[in-house]
Amino acid sequence: MIYLDNSATTFPKPDIVYDFMTGFYRKHGVNPGRSGFDAAIETEEIIFNTRKLLTTLFNGGGDPNRLTFSYNATDSLNIILQGLAEKGDHVITTNLEHNAVLRPLYCMEQQGIINVSHVPFDSAGYVDPNDIQKAIRPNTKYVVCTHSSNVIGTVQPLDAIGEVCRKAGVLFIVDGSQGAGTSSVDMVASGIDVYVFTGHKCLMGPTGIGGSYVRENVVVRQTRYGGTGVRSAYPAHLEEYPYRLEAGTLNLLGIAGLNAGVKWLLEKGIDAIHQQEIALWDKLRFALQKIDGVITYCVTDSKNQNPVLSFNIQGLEAADVGMMLDVDYNIACRTGLQCAPKVHEQLGTKDIHGTVRLSIGAFNTEDDIDATVAAIKDIAAIRRIV
């Protein structure tokens, strides 16, 4: 199989991730923070080490305990977006967002808690910070924006958006699902108040693990309560981090895999991996744009871009193209709206049931790209014959 669905989840993972997860769970599959025996203490050390690794990676600040774990980015976005919103607040987001952002905001708006403004992106696929500035109102609580689009791969101008938020005194939340591990992020420099991540994409961890880093002086209301293994006689859930946003036993196996994945990334070099992927993306986009009948979307420049490309073939349904790539050529991709309906509304692809998305990962090769281009040429030729 030629795997070009890395935006959904990176696959395969580095061998060290599989090996470390297996070895860790066989030796340290015990409950951390609940007991004082050696294995429990060593397990807690792995968890804290992973908090430190990610805090450094995101340059969140000096306190690794403010890096908290959850099931995935969607889980953390629900915790953060709902935990910050209060009745009467105004919230700004963009048309590039995944449903992990759109649906919690929609739900709160339907409940009469908040009012939401959606800022469009330009023809190249980027949000203009000036548009966000124009949308800010006196009661705006926060701006929530994707780090990188999961449909078109554009990396958003976080520094400029963060500056707008700083000047206006509103919080800046970033959905880093598609950015963490592939695009650099500096929470301090960009003025990001909360950065949300998932482990199973470019951070090279397994599914079922994600989290967020919350900067100091950002108060997230607690919405979950339970055991922490600390001060058990206290009737209220603990307010300090990391317990504030974590309840119950953590996903130890997921954290172990994430730990190994981040270390692998740092060893190989995030920039080096990104340049390798973008070189393949460049080859793919130039080749596809030469094929008669192929339409690419927001593919203009490799600068501020992640290796994600959406396309259609005139006269064919995206789902049919994806099925042919799978069945006839053994190429795995994603078709449809990619859980980001407002992107497709603005691109004009929602009524034609979305696009075919190809997303390149660290283990793809030039041979993969050559085979994919040849397959799409064949499919486009079929369209002309029909």
> Kindly, what is the distance between the CA atoms of the first and last residues, rounded to a whole number of angstroms?
28 Å
CATH domain class of the largest domain: Alpha Beta
Corresponding CATH architecture of the largest domain:
3-Layer(aba) Sandwich
- Can you count the beta strands? 13
CATH H-level superfamily title of the largest domain: Type I PLP-dependent aspartate aminotransferase-like (Major domain)
Strand order of the largest sheet: 2-8-7-6-5-3-4
Q: Could you say how many structural domains there are in total?
A: 2
Notable traits:
single chain, 386 residues, alpha/beta, Aspartate Aminotransferase, domain 1, Aspartate Aminotransferase, domain 2, 2 domains, seven-stranded mixed β-sheet, four-stranded antiparallel β-sheet, 12 helices
Q: Can you characterise this structure?
A:
The chain has helices spanning 15-28, 38-58, 73-84, 99-110, 129-135, 158-168, 187-190, 252-268, 270-288, 318-329, 341-347, 366-385; strands at 2-3, 67-70, 89-94, 114-119, 140-146, 171-175, 194-198, 210-214, 294-296, 308-313, 331-332, 334-336, 355-359. It is of the alpha/beta class and 386 residues long. It folds into two domains: 2-11 and 269-385, Aspartate Aminotransferase, domain 1 (Alpha-Beta Complex), CATH 3.90.1150.10; 15-267, 3-Layer(aba) Sandwich (Aspartate Aminotransferase, domain 2). α4 links the parallel β3 and β4 (114-119). The chain is globular and about 75 Å long. The protein starts with a strand and ends with a helix. The model has no long low-confidence stretch (mean pLDDT 95).
